[in-house]
Amino acid sequence: FYGLNMAVIFFFVLLLIPIFRRLRAIYGIFTLVFVVMPLTVGETNSIARFYLGVFPAFMFLGWWSSQGNQEQREYRHNIIVTPFAILLSLAMAMFTLGIYSMS
Fold this sequence. Notes:
This protein has about 100 residues and is mainly α. It has six helices and no strands. The chain has helices spanning about 1-20, 25-40, 45-50, 55-65, 70-95, 100.
């Protein structure tokens, strides 16, 4: 899970830049606090679970996927939905096989 957790941290830290540019400042501050707060503990286990509550990141993804012409919107939608669907399938299979309870 270490690689997945590092990828999630990297993704959310990168999302801070466009969130501060496109959304209101309070959303950027909220995102910054909720991205940095779990990192101050020093544990990166299940960090993706903590980041699910950072709603401005998902607001930005929704805004970004609705920009441009129809072809661009469909492409951006697929860029967002495909990794989430793959991760959901993987997590569901791991949960069903009891892998989470062993780690």
